[in-house]
Specification:
about 280 residues; alpha+beta; globular
Length: about 280
């Protein structure tokens, strides 16, 4: 009797399990394919293209760069950069299913893949980009440690968030407005030419002055101060940092450039409330 009762309970439990609501309406493979298709749709949906905040190397010693990417269809991507005057380059890309949607720039693009080239190649004239570095940077076999493959963490009309498969750096794509499509590249390049010309920096927080040096003097896009790294990109309004950093209790993510005035002969970069200055 006990045996029969035990079997009956097991059968009743199994029957109840079968009646439980499904957590997902789709099978895992179907959900992943849906995610992949969504990435294609979102990236191609903004016809003016995207601003890509690109940071090679997990140590961020080379700083950040702005690329302008336009996904023309399911195959072609057009790339420009704020760091070079090279004309737009077209190559191919694909989105593959993996641990999630994987965005891969799968054929060589002289602008995008420059950061993934070993220094052995970037020191050669053939691979150099006009207006950019004229010497090889980084280790002979690694260069600037860039990458081609990115896990897509988010894909919506307001932003696409990527994660480098090697560095785990976050790369964010924000949509370009149709009204700024014709001028956005030139405005970023003008800012890069202006701000990259500055030499050494110092932070001013309250009455304190903290000296800062470039982690890589050839690129001038990453600072070392008080033992910490502060990596950034140039923008038309100033500097945009990789993440929200903190220095002496003051947090900052964006620093706006203030034109020369008074004691600041070269101007300076400041947070919104003026509690922190980065002075060239």
């Amino acid at each position: 009797n006990l045996f029969i009762l035990g079997i009956s309970i097991l059968l009743l439990t199994a029957g109840c399990d079968k009646k439980r609501d499904k957590i997902f309406d789709q099978q895992p493979t179907d959900r992943l394919n849906t995610s992949v298709n969504n990435v294609y749709t979102v990236m191609q949906g903004n016809k003016a293209g995207w601003v890509m905040a690109y940071y090679p190397s997990s140590a961020l010693e080379f700083g950040g760069y702005t690329m302008f990417v336009k996904f023309s269809n399911n195959i072609d991507v057009v790339v420009e950069g704020d760091f070079t005057t090279q004309a737009a380059q077209t190559s191919t890309y694909t989105v593959l299913p993996g641990a999630g949607p994987i965005l891969t720039f799968d054929t060589y693009n002289s602008i995008f893949h420059y950061f993934a080239l070993p220094q052995y190649y970037t020191k050669e004239t053939y691979y150099r980009l006009p207006g950019f570095l004229n010497v090889g940077v980084g280790a002979i076999n690694e260069g600037m440690k860039g990458e081609n493959d990115f896990l897509v963490l988010k894909a919506t009309s307001d932003s696409v968030v990527l994660e480098g498969r090697k560095s785990y750096n976050k790369m964010v794509l924000t949509p370009i407005k149709s009204s700024e499509e014709a001028s956005i590249v030139s405005s970023f390049r003008a800012a890069t030419a202006k701000f990259n010309a500055f030499g050494g920096y110092k932070f001013e927080v309250g009455t304190e002055t903290i000296p800062a040096s470039f982690k890589t003097s050839a690129t001038k896009r990453s600072l070392l101060a008080s033992g910490n790294t502060y990596a950034y990109r140039y923008t038309p309004t100033g500097l945009s940092f990789y993440t929200a950093y903190e220095l002496m209790g003051v947090k900052f993510k964006e620093l706006k450039y203030i034109e020369p005035t008074g004691a600041y002969a070269k101007g300076y970069f400041s947070n919104t409330d003026g509690t922190l200055k980065l002075v060239p």
